Amino acid sequence: MSKTLVAYFSTGGDTKRAAESIARAAGADVYEIRPKVPYTEADLDWNDKNSRSSVEMRTLERPEIEGAVHNMQSYNTVFVGFPIWWYLAPTIINGFLASYDFAGKTVVPFATSGGSDLGKAAAVLKPLCADSTKWIDGKMVGELSDADIAAWVKSLGI
What is the pLDDT along the chain (158 residues), one digit of tens a residue? Predict the structure, then answer.
């Protein structure tokens, strides 16, 4: 029997909402990717070139992740969700993907944004799970209704 995980990182709640909608549609487990040191509002100020998020994106520093998916090997499909930062996934997502073996799994990225598209996110993320059996191109889901998200998940045939 196929088992699905929806892993996500969210700072403003939009990605969390989308992740929960995907999980309902897919009958999936949910895992929140959280930094060991939580982000403050000042950390997330993308207008400040010295804010934590700006520095991480510039240097590609990967923040430590709190906790872990202890049974990753049991999942066949992993949805990975994140907000778009500077046309990329936040570096915490890079760290999450680099932490696990995706051999034999289907990986499906999804993202939210206030106005950007997926940008270069897939080009950076796909090599981090190169052993995955199947990489499905990502989707922007922030503006989608629960019904639209459910239709998208169903259309994937996984």
Answer: 679 999 999 999 999 999 999 999 999 999 999 999 999 999 999 999 999 999 999 999 999 999 999 999 999 999 999 999 988 999 999 999 999 999 999 999 999 997 778 878 989 999 998 777 899 988 999 999 999 999 999 999 98
Tokens matching residue 111: 């993202």
Note whether 6 and 19 are within 8 A (CB): yes
Return the bridge partners of 29, or none: 5
**How, if at all, do strands 65-66 and 34-35 pair?**
antiparallel
Distance of CA 75 to the CA centre of its chain: 16
Per DSSP, the residues of 47-109 read: T-TTSHHHHHHHHT--PPEES--TTGGG-SEEEEEEE-BTTB--HHHHHHHHTS--BT-EEEE
Tokens of 141: 């889901």
**Strand duo 106-112 + 139-140: pairing:** parallel
The C-alpha atoms of residue 72 and residue 102 are separated, in whole angstroms, by: 9
